């Protein structure tokens, strides 16, 4: 977590390449690798490291001001690995390392492994670090930082040590003094420590260069001068795996894989073609209107990068991390490939007052306890700290975008503001509110004991499992002496959902009653378990009857009836309560079918109340939903409306028509997304070609035409242009009437090889773009508004400084 009392800039660097050629790596002129506290490194497998016991880089009073130590107990992940096998401890006064270096920019990397050293507990260590007049760390706790990183990994589903090692990387320009000083100062009644120090030179204009810096959301960009310092926040290898420091180009940078940062849009690897023109958005602001990769690189085989600077504000100083969203959108107004791609990304914090220091991170309640209770404030409304880009609060960001393929950021966060104040508003419009002292509405639905649930599922026997979703496994069971069949949904510990979604589901369904909504019978919150009990839906989910199934295909007429029923359920959510209820996760697996094939909307864990103020038409919230179904406008703006559900339902309509997944990464680019593939076929007049082959002969032409009108109206780019769910219900009922009328006439089904001009929209060529069906790759934003800032063709070409990405896959 990064917190600032003054605005700080962040810089993003995007790395772009068509085909990266193998080039000679950069050769650093200055290289220092100091294993602090070590007396000998000759027996290690990494010859780069030198010990500091008799080093010329330490002060003469090293014995009186510090002492070496080794970890009392090392995690297997760092056991025997330099520089984490030892540490130098400073518990009295300041201690300074001094390195003779050449003039120019340098990487300064500080290695930390919080552990017990000489009976000194890691949570008791607080200290400051400065270098050449820059304050790098102030009252810094390596233990809190490591615990925070461990929690982030856990939230991202990545296993790792409870208190991991980590590296803080800074970029400092050394002037004609030709000395680089690193000073460690313990806080009062505390101690400082360091495991390793690394100093490596870099090309002169690689990062300290404002010539081609593009401001985003600002009229001018701040200069990156030799009087400033940078801190690396993220460095990602898009579409590829982790690259260790030894695998870098001579500057010993580590590159993380990007998979935990992607949210929505295209997630497959990119084919190797070059004629691509796309747009770049950062925090919902236009960074570049047109990036022509081929033009930037002047041909194939040359990587380039683009620098952007953006301000990330923390107006309430709430110490919460904020997402930094980066999106590439294909430019449909060109005659080249409608695509976008990215090879790498670097994000840097930029100092504006000779300080990069920030307070220690706040830990979530699941983080290991610490003695520094006055420092660590626990906040239940804080999001779980998944890996995010930026981690940026009250800051200006230098985004070094290593530009080459679609890159979206992902962060699994819990919404703010979904507290108890909202629960009373779940009342239907015709009923009265009831106050209760209980957190969960036991007066409206039954509270089961864990013993009852265990008996109903034979102690969660896998033979009883009938499904598995984002919340966890779903079991079929019997309650009340086997008189009532129920579906029992049990929260999985590894699920992205949790207590908030559990309470939201109960709060919603206990107060909403509609034939088109699944009925909640009760819940169990006992001995750490979170369990929901529903009416049993004998025919399972809608998706089970569409694809990847051995079940008989649903007739077209029944599919229409199911769509109408689900639309009525969503219409009730949008209009039947005091405030609009936005489902936020409409998809085919959340539409259940009872024994009579009546459709019921289910899974309200991500639902959100609409605006309480009549003057507003949206609520601002972080993006949640399922990839392939998320409304692109909501994705870009983080403004949620009931029209976001309409968009998702439009995707479901295409699923019903085509019987294929909403995303298939292995297909040609235009076919990966079902929504975009449907729009493409509609423009060409070949929508009938993608109908489920099992029902193609059943669909009447006039019904298909009307169904297409409804589906693609739902998928319009702008929410204001989409119909209401009431209009969707009417349109689908009309389509059903057309189908039933056509069934009275023999031979009116859609011929397999016939094309219909009335299904086309505007253009006669597939390569001609339309105004409302641009390719969607996904993005989200924190602030309102956009700015149109076009960059010049400038971009630092370098086939050597980024040659660690030798075989770029990209995204």
Description:
The protein is α+β, with helices and mostly antiparallel strands and 811 residues long. The protein contains twelve helices and 35 strands. The strands form eight sheets. Strands 1, 2, 3, 7, 10, 13, 14, 15, 16, 19, 21, 22 and 35 form a 13-stranded mixed beta sheet that branches. A six-stranded mixed beta sheet has the order 23-27-28-26-25-24, sandwiched between helices. Strands 6-11-8-9 form a four-stranded antiparallel beta sheet, with no helix packed on it. A hairpin with a 4-residue loop joins strand 24 (465-468) and strand 25. Helix 6 (556-575) packs antiparallel against helix 8 (642-658) and helix 6 (556-575) runs antiparallel to helix 12. The radius of gyration is 29 Å and the shape is globular. Residues 1-8, 16-22, 316-320, 365-394, 402-443 and 750-799 have low confidence and may be disordered. Residues 460-735 form the Protein kinase domain. The chain crosses the membrane at residues 385-407.
